[in-house]
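User: Here's a structure from my thesis project, written as structure tokens. My advisor, Dr. K., wants to see whether a designed sequence matches the one we expressed. Can you design one independently, without my sequence as a hint?
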């Protein structure tokens, strides 16, 4: 907490998340959201929030196991992008870290069928129309080697 004119003020908090571009040649693994209450029916990446006291690559490794049943070692990930999103509608400001991996162990499988109704490989130059708009924009940035993006509102 910080003090302003004798009053204690709660420190500003960000919500950190991690995303994985799991690549197989010119394809990326996408998951279609289902039964989550947020953007259901749209494709995104393996992703999740940091649990606290957890490094980004460790969180990403955990999420890959939880969502796709695979092991991606932190040393096999490459940082490719960070995005800062202001929380205009929900008040939740976010920082998203994107990693890329081309190496993993195990068979890709839908490990969370209650939250995902499709797990498929898509060519990076032919992504499905029903993608999370934010993820589509970041994938374009990554392909263009743009390492940072920021958004004042959620892309539509």
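Assistant: Designed independently from the structure alone:
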């Amino acid at each position: 907490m910080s003090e302003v004119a004798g009053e204690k003020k709660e420190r500003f908090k960000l919500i950190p998340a991690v995303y994985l571009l799991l690549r197989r040649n010119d394809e990326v693994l996408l998951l279609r959201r289902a039964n989550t209450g947020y953007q259901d029916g749209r494709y995104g990446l393996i992703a999740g929030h940091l649990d606290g006291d957890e490094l980004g690559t460790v969180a990403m490794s955990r999420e890959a196991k939880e969502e796709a049943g695979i092991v991606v070692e932190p040393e096999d990930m490459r940082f490719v992008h960070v995005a800062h999103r202001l929380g205009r509608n929900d008040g939740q400001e976010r920082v998203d870290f994107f990693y890329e991996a081309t190496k993993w162990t195990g068979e890709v499988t839908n490990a969370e069928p209650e939250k995902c109704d499709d797990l498929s490989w898509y060519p990076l130059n032919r992504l499905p129309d029903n993608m999370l708009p934010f993820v589509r924009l970041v994938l374009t940035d990554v392909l263009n080697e743009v390492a940072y993006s920021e958004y004042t509102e959620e892309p539509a």
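When you compare it with your expressed construct, this may help: The mean pLDDT is 93.
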